[in-house]
Amino acid sequence: MSISQSMAGSEVSPAQVILLAVQLASKADISALETLISHNRKTLPLELTLRILLTHLPESLESVTYVPFLERLYSGVLTSVPEFQIDKYVLDDLTDAEAKKKVRKLHLLPLTWPYDPADEPLGPLVRFLVLRSLRVDENTGLITQLPALLGPFLHHSTFLRTWLISSILPLLRFNYEYHPEDTLFLTIPAFEQLDVESGVNLLLSRTGINGNGNGTTVGRDLRGLVGPWMYGGNKRKRKNSRTSSQVGLQPIAALDEGQHANEKCAGWEEVFKWIIQQAGTAWETVVEVVEQWDGPGDVDLGVYGDGTVGFEESEQQHLERRYGRSAIAAAYLISDESVEALAGVHRILTRITTLLDQDRIPTLQTAISLLSPVSGLDEKILSKDNVVYLRNGLLDEHNCLTRPGETSARLLHALIISAYLCMRVGYNFTVRRAGELVLLQEQREQKVEFNKLMRQVSNGPKGDDRYWIKLRSEILWLRSWGAEELPEGAGDTVGRGVFGQLSKAYVEAEILKLFLSNNRYTLARSIYETSPDRPLSNELLVDTTIAAAMNAYDNATNANKTRGGVKKCNDILEAFPDTLEDSLDKDQVMSLINVTHWIGEYRLVFKQGEPFKPVTLRVYGDPISIIGKILDQNPKSYAKINNLVNIGKEMVKAGLILRESNGRARKPFDYERKEQLLIAEKRVVSMCIDAALADDDFETAYSYVVTRLKDIAGPSHSRSPALEKTQSGLMAEVPPKVVDDWSWRAALQAGKYRRNAATTKPTHFGNSSGNLEIRHLEQRMECLSQALRIAPKATLQEILNAYRRCEEELESLVQQEVEQEAAWDAQGDDQQVPGGFKSTPMKQNNTVSSTSRATGAAEEAPMSLFDLSRASMARAQSGFSALSMLKGNATLDMNETGHTNSEDAGGPTTPKHAVRKRDQLKNVAVGSLASGIGWLINAPPVNTNSDESEGH
Fold this sequence. Notes:
By secondary structure, the chain is mostly helical. Among the domains are: 358-502, no CATH class; 696-828 and 841-951, no CATH class. The chain is 59% helix and 0% strand. The longest helix has 32 residues, at 796-827. The chain is elongated and about 190 Å long. Residues 821-857, 893-915 are annotated as: Disordered. One of its GO terms (biological process) is protein transport. Keywords: Endoplasmic reticulum, Protein transport, Transport.
């Protein structure tokens, strides 16, 4: 039985019809339901039918199954199915009362929505579609069915279109198209409740993470996720975003379109904020954003858009400016120190200038090759006050650095080139740091960064002059940004670039040092010496060259002047022959090179195994003492005394001795130079004497005392001690200055030396005694005589004591020799002849005579030298002031006394034409002592000319 026949044959109450409709909806029998509704329009009106569908139609049912039915239901043109059998449904057992009771218990869902817009009342169908979509999402999560459900009805309601685009499309694309591996477990109501900041961060949470820098996913996400979500800027969303977005976003208040425009554009501020945040962590994402997205007007609404984005012209212009400002701000905030990141900043600037219809900027490589002057930068944008905008308030409307325009673009472009020039040579430099140097205008900070750059480029290619010429041009451009080529900057002494506060002379001097350190001597001379337009003054050129030479010297590890840093030092000095022709500094450095080379020929190790380095000479407190270390560490090196003396003198010529209080060498006066040369020789000779004695080579030490100290040694005081007490009180003279405290000590040490088993034996005797002990004592006494001549008065007693001991030993040895000679004479050679007569009286008389002669000689021995020394000391100490007036007489008396004593010593027993050996020794001892005592009374030495006295 068909439904029409059934209804005609028996009456079906409205309650039963409603229950039947509920059953059909629950079973998703859309055809039977449509037939039932078509025959019971009064019982099942549109709103009741929609409520039944909303409550009982299964949410898992595909939208395409019932959307055509909804379209016909809304239009009122329903179709019926004739073969529908009502017998399939059990309604006969229900009375009308029971049916009504069940109807009252159906609890159908109402077609009401708390967010129904007041300015656009929604009809029952639109409300049903919204509520149906929410139930499908809540119960099944099948939001993929919603576009098919809502799409056919978008032309009925603007709100429905907006709601689909802003609330469903972003979720649908995120979960099923763009990022299916990172599904958002978020319902539509929960998504709608997000504020702007949370929504932007959620939708862009996967943006750029898996990108490789070559795709288009970043722009796709902004167009297809954020764009549609921002499109639905309904009042509820505006209310949620108003508090979070306007805090700290001052540009929003600058709009003139009223509160509605403020709320409408506020959401995009969070997008701009997100872009800036990415600059510090993922600069590639920022570059992709700018290159792939044209701004808030670039929105992908899919097939659901109506061709508009909902912005007024003023709003569109404002958002474009804000987008440009955020892109420039992000360029300043990119902190990655790499050439790739810097190229990305340039791509951002290029893209923004294109979007804002500004003049096109050249490519980075073109700009680097041209290094064009930077024009159009006024004092306002280069003010120190703008430094704060590099750190805070990057999106502030008052920030002239990020304001989209020609001036800010020129500044950013200049900073990009500056940073790129630094990064290309390996010195990490960011755009932000370059901006700080330009705006702060602090010379100290610029010098620090400049020196870092120069150290980085110090190891360039050694054989390519073109590289160094270009490098010089780039460094000079970094200082001035080419301002000298502009009419307004031709006479400026201060540049505009990142090193603008440094003088051009300073920069050129550092470039010259760079050339010299990399062996570009010919290039350096062609630019700085022979060029008609010399960048440096002659004085500065000399100072810079010497500084470069000393830097090479200080970094040298080998003392050989034909290799390494010392060779480079020498080459630098030879690079400017005209400039350094008469330079004292050059002479000093050349002497330093020579002395370094000579020292390098010896083994020399300092404390803790530290080997000798050339720089040690310059920092050592007492360079002459290094010669002592050479003598200690190189056996027999004292024999090369001429070489060592030359080393000491070269140290003086190198300026290592006379220094300022800060340790730097100073220019000496002529008299100072001569004095220091003499002192150096005295010290070195004294060191060699001490070294020879330490090596038990007394013969060498003795030869140095009598041959070298005799000529160079002077008094230990600059003024005779006899003049110290001529005045007193305020008129008293200052104590005498010690000028030679080394020679007398060396002579004294030689005089104190005693022979031992390890003492080197002499190779020739000359006219001296064949007795080694007597010869050694003679040499010691001669050394002590030299010490007496030059030693200070406080040490005379010590020297005289040593002399006395030598004298006593000599007396003893002489006595032993006399006794040996007497014994030899007593024995006689003829007693050993075979056939001789042993007891001849004549021979016995001769023996007795010889013995008597020896005894008489012993009894007639001359006066002790110690007695003479003691008497002389007493006279000297009792009246030094009187002795100075008796120089000539005292000298004559001493010479006569010495001569008389010598004659008396040998007179009684020895003929004048045959002086005995012991008398020769006596004469030597007396003569040496007379020389020493003669000094005590300021008498000139015997047989010494006036020139030698004045010299010592």
